[in-house]
Amino acid sequence: MAIKVGMVSLGCSKNQVDAERLLALIVHDGFEICADPAECDVVIINTCGFIEDAKRESIESILEFCEMKRSGQVKVIVVTGCLAERYRDELVREIPEADVVLGIGRNFDIANAVRRALNGEKVAEYGEKEDLALGGDRVLTTPNYSVYLKIAEGCDNRCTFCAIPLIRGGFRSRPMEEVIEEAKELAANGAKELNLIAQDTTRYGLDLYGELKLAELLRELCKIDGLHWIRVLYGYPERVTDELLEVMASEPKIVKYIDLPLQHANGRVLKAMNRPGDHASLTEKMNHIREMVPGIALRTTLIAGFPGETEEEFNEMCEFVQEMRFERLGCFAYSAEEDTIAGEMDCQLDEETKHHRAEIVMEQQMDIAFQIGESLIGEVIEVLVEDYDYDRLMYVGRSAMDAPDIDTKTMFTAARELHAGDFVQVEILDSEGYDLIGREYEELEAEDDE
After folding, report:
1. CB atoms within 10 A of CB 96
2. Is 405 helix (H, G, I), strand (E, B) or coil?
3. Structural domain harbouring 225
4. How far apart are CA 424 and CA 404, in angstroms?
5. What DSSP string runs through 58-104?
6. Are residues 339 and 398 in the same domain?
7. Are residues 109 and 205 in the same domain?
8. Residues 284, 405: one domain?
9. E strand or H helix that includes residue 439
10. Residue 18 shares a structural domain with residue 124
11. Are residues 52 and 166 in the same domain?
């Protein structure tokens, strides 16, 4: 009887792709994947260790399965991912119920580690961060019509608040031909939306080819049959070149959307973060992007309460948010991370102040988002169907302005049967909070003809 293996993957989409590669290795070794981890012999917890809240969630998940192991529901607990890479000895010492602790550099050995643990052995192995494979087979955990494609690993930006380089190592691009080949395989498997991810997608190619290659990569991906939307996530503003913007403006498959985590708008705070720019230069950059790619949806993330952030500097960030009117925005309270430069700064703000400031920004953005939603009433937009809400008798989908998992939804009615993965034209009739309400445009045309 096959051993059943379940996976709990936490954190970002980049970690999710790693989980999918781990599952493929498990399947290739003869194990059976089980959707419900509580019914499995082996549970793999692919952890996140980016900020305090993510670490807490990872630890709580591990402890939950430790209880199941004590009650005999689960035989083996495997801990992988960022938390395992970052807190190696601590995990082994503090959570002895974990049978396997595997750093990212040993992901390739997951099946062997599971077999050893099933035979009663405790396994704790790490390896070099650079040994994490950039490619390989995947067992998709997203719907096959909307997938992530990781184009690079690690980061060279060295922002003072961020532990990613410590966990994931330096920036490494995947060879372009390898990325294109995987994209073709995903498209042949039904992928219609391709979401490009990396710690910094806009840096793609610099290490391999000596120059930025994201624009060229996008041109090549646009040639692949079957792909309808190609989305760029997690870019860096100063590496958004005119060449890249020209490709985004001219290629219909590339959605008019880009995610640029700016983190702040005050020059002094940005310098303390080891990030370039200030209020004026970022304003100029955002305006330039909008001029070159008309109708583009800009998404960003900001950090409130960075060490030493004054009330005036915070207010400047709020002014920037009001001026830029980002289509999509998230703001997080600063999290002091171990072994980072910012985490050791003397001028740490108290938790209440940090969270209060983040809430202020999100309240600002809520008003902006609601106004943007209202401005779309009467417009016809393309929507990717994802689900059906039987309570409201409406289809649920996303527009090109909305990335999977993080952005808003469009809910609409249709006179015909639709399926997940279909693209439809929807006329927006109303907005409901962050979400849009509408009905399929063809339905309106049919009514007009009667």
Report:
1. 10
2. coil
3. 146-374
4. 17
5. HHHHHHHHHHHHHTTS-SEEEEEEHHHHHSHHHHHHH-TT-SEEE-G
6. no
7. no
8. no
9. strand 435-440
10. yes
11. no
Would the CA dihedral through 324, 329, 335, 337 be positive or negative?
negative
Confidence (pLDDT) at 50:
66
Given 315, 350, 374, which residue is the final one in a domain? 374
- Bridge-based pairing of strands 229-232 and 254-259 is parallel
Low-confidence ranges of the chain (pLDDT < 50): 443-444, 446-450
Residue 140 CB-half CA count within 13 A: 16
Residues 45, 136, 205, CA angle at the centre, nearest 5°? 105
Query: What does the pLDDT read at residue 262?
Result: 97
Q: What is the CA radius of gyration of the chain?
A: 23
Q: Which of 168, 279, 156 is nearest to 206 (CA)?
A: 156
Would you call 395 helix, strand, or coil by DSSP? strand
Buried b (16+ CB within 10 A) or exposed e, 138-176: bbbbbbebbbbbbbbbbbeeebbbbbbbbbbbebbbbeb
Q: Do 125 and 109 form a contact (C-beta atoms < 8 A)?
A: yes
Largest Cα–Cα separation, the chain: 73
- Say if 136 falls within a structural domain: no
Domain containing 53 — which CATH number? 3.40.50.12160
Encoding tokens for residue 150?
Answer: 């990781």
CATH number at residue 253: 3.80.30.20
In this predicted structure, what is the pLDDT of residue 74?
A: 85
Contact 74, 97 (CB under 8 A): no
Sign (positive/negative) of CA torsion 280, 286, 289, 291? negative
Handedness of CA 361, 367, 368, 369 (dihedral sign): positive
Is 297:257 a contact under the CB 8 Å cutoff? yes
Q: How far apart are CA 188 and CA 197, in angstroms?
A: 20
Domain-embedded: residue 279: yes
Question: For residue range 328-358, what is the model confidence (pLDDT) as tens digits?
Answer: 999 999 999 888 999 999 999 999 999 999 9
pLDDT at 15: 87
pLDDT value of residue 450: 45
